[in-house]
């Protein structure tokens, strides 16, 4: 008789159900663990013993054993948070983390990230998340690396273009023969020009190469017959002269030091269409670089245009550093050249105003019968900015928001997947490591190549179904109890055998 072998069948049942209960206990213990993936057990029977029967050879099983403990990688639900660096993966993939200064990589679904004092993007265990550094256009730079902010400031960018769209009142009359002549940088009152010398002004703040700000003021005045720009053919009812100025103390051009013209950066004329009121022609004169800047003979028509076709002047807000600035009033030159006319302000009366092939932009300056006003103004420079906050997009791109209004690409969070993720090895702390059976990690961008997308301000919860775990707990308990009954029953049977001999 093989009654005693039943004891070992019962013992195998106790062992497998005990291990199954351990798995259930681990799942329930981690029901609130961020990014946790539940496990499940599967059983199999063990080698059977052949016995002789009346009908031939038959088999008797010898108990059960654990077939596998599998990880269920089903998506967990998301919890919304108020922290921008809390990330969750919607779909396949793992975050890639590594100890600081090491290349050993681990993988996790828990996206509780934050920046430490050194700028490392770390999880609660101090492991640094990995990704790609980005250039200003959002393209990857180099290979996968630890995400670390080495600078928390945005460098300044000097102003290279000014846009000033205005409406100038067509009913205005001329205030002076020349607002350039009315400008006096050495006036003892400290006011280079009085309000009565021009018709309208608009001001805009610009930045130099070091990030310091400077006010640029454009002064406009209706032309009259005595204007230095009047060659006898100018339509005085639809023409204005202008000067582009800065504070005299901000103008560090050597030739202008102590001059009455210090602070004047550009001068010229604007001509409006008599029918539509839209700007149709303009001229621009800048200092030629030699001679007394107060003399009109030393102001030549602008020799350079921006790539978009706007005339440029050269300023010096930082000593010795030339800063080219283009001015847009609402028209652009299609060829970036002048056609005929005067080459200096001095010979306008004899040669006429220079012309160019101008085309209007979507928003252009006008001359309507309404109060003069600034319709729109902007410039493309900015000062030094300090990092205020971080945001991460669904594509994993991390951008910094700076106090100077700049939004700069910083990093792209990297993700990894495996051909056999069931073979990953758990090491605790919500981390997995790759094994030979899992294969090497396949890294990529979120949302590409089968990888999930990033959900910012979210954390993935445990995927443990507690109701299902309690049901499994009941069946596992009963299985364990039934196997224990086998042992006690076999014990009774053996006792009966012993009792046969008295």
Write the layout of secondary structure elements.
Blueprint: H1 3-29, E1 39-45, E2 49-53, E3 56-60, E4 64-71, E5 78-80, E6 87-90, E7 94-98, E8 106-108, E9 114-115, E10 121-122, E11 128-134, E12 140-146, E13 153-154, E14 161-167, H2 179-182, E15 200-207, E16 213-222, E17 239-246, E18 264-272, E19 279-282, E20 285-287, E21 299-301, E22 312-318, E23 321-328, E24 331-333, H3 348-351, E25 358-360, E26 373-379, E27 385-392, E28 397-402, E29 407-413, E30 415-417, E31 425-428, E32 431-433, E33 442-444, E34 453-456, E35 458-460, H4 466-499
Parallel strand pairs: 14-23
Antiparallel strand pairs: 1-4, 2-3, 5-35, 6-34, 7-8, 7-11, 7-30, 9-10, 11-12, 11-29, 13-27, 14-26, 15-16, 16-17, 17-18, 18-19, 20-21, 22-23, 24-25, 27-28, 28-29, 30-33, 31-32
Helix pairs in contact: 1-4
Task: Give structural notes.
The model has no long low-confidence stretch (mean pLDDT 92). α1 (3-29) runs antiparallel to α4. The protein contains 4 helices and 35 strands. With 502 residues, the protein is mainly β. The strands form 11 sheets. Strands 7, 8, 11, 12, 13, 27, 28, 29, 30 and 33 form a 10-stranded antiparallel beta sheet that branches. It folds into 3 domains: 3-64 and 479-499, no CATH class; 78-146 and 392-398 and 407-460, no CATH class; 161-379, Tick-borne Encephalitis virus Glycoprotein, domain 1 (Sandwich), CATH 2.60.98.20. A hairpin with a 2-residue loop joins β22 and β23 (321-328).
């Amino acid at each position: 008789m093989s009654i005693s072998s039943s004891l070992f069948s019962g013992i195998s049942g106790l062992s497998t159900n005990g291990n199954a209960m351990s798995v259930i206990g681990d799942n329930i213990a981690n029901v609130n663990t961020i990014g946790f993936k539940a496990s499940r057990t599967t059983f199999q029977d063990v080698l059977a013993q052949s016995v002789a029967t009346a009908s031939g050879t038959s088999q008797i099983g010898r108990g059960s054993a654990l077939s596998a403990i599998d990880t269920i990688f089903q998506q967990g639900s998301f919890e919304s948070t108020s922290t921008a660096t809390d990330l969750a993966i919607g779909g396949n993939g793992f975050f890639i983390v590594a100890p600081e200064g090491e290349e050993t990589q681990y993988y996790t679904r828990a996206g509780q990230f934050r920046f430490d004092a050194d700028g490392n993007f770390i999880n609660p265990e101090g492991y640094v998340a990995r990704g790609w550094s980005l250039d200003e256009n959002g393209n990857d730079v180099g290979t996968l690396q630890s995400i670390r902010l080495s600078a928390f400031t945005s460098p300044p960018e000097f102003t290279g273009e000014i846009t000033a769209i205005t409406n100038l009142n067509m009913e205005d009359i001329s205030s002076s023969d020349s607002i350039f002549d009315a400008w006096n940088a050495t006036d003892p009152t400290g006011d280079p020009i009085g309000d009565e010398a021009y018709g309208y002004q608009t001001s805009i703040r610009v930045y130099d190469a070091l990030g310091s700000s400077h006010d640029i003021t454009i002064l406009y005045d209706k032309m009259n017959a005595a204007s230095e720009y009047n060659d006898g053919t100018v339509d005085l009812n639809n023409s204005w002269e202008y000067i582009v100025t800065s504070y005299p103390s901000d103008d560090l051009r050597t030739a202008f030091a102590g001059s009455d013209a210090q602070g004047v950066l550009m001068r010229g004329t604007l001509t409006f269409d008599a029918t539509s009121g839209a700007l149709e022609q303009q001229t621009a004169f800048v200092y030629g670089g030699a001679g007394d800047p107060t003399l009109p003979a030393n102001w030549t028509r602008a020799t350079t245009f921006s790539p978009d076709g706007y005339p440029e002047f050269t300023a010096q807000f930082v000593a010795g550093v030339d800063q080219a600035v283009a001015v847009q009033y609402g028209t652009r030159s299609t060829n970036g050249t002048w056609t005929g006319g005067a080459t200096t302000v001095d010979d306008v009366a004899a040669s006429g105003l220079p012309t160019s092939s101008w085309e209007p932009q979507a928003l252009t300056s006008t001359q309507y019968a309404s109060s003069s006003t600034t319709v729109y103004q902007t410039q493309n420079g900015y000062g030094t900015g300090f990092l205020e906050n971080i945001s991460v997009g669904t594509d994993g791109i991390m951008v910094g928001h700076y106090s100077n209004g700049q939004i700069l690409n910083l990093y792209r969070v990297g993700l990894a997947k495996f051909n056999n993720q069931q073979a990953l090895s758990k090491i605790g702390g919500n981390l997995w490591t790759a094994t030979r059976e899992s294969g090497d990690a396949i890294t990529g961008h979120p949302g590409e190549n089968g990888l999930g997308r990033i959900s910012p301000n979210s954390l993935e919860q445990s995927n443990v179904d507690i109701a299902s775990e309690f049901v499994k707990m009941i069946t596992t308990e009963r299985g364990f109890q039934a196997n224990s009954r086998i042992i006690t029953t076999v014990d009774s049977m053996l006792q009966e055998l012993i009792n046969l001999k008295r």
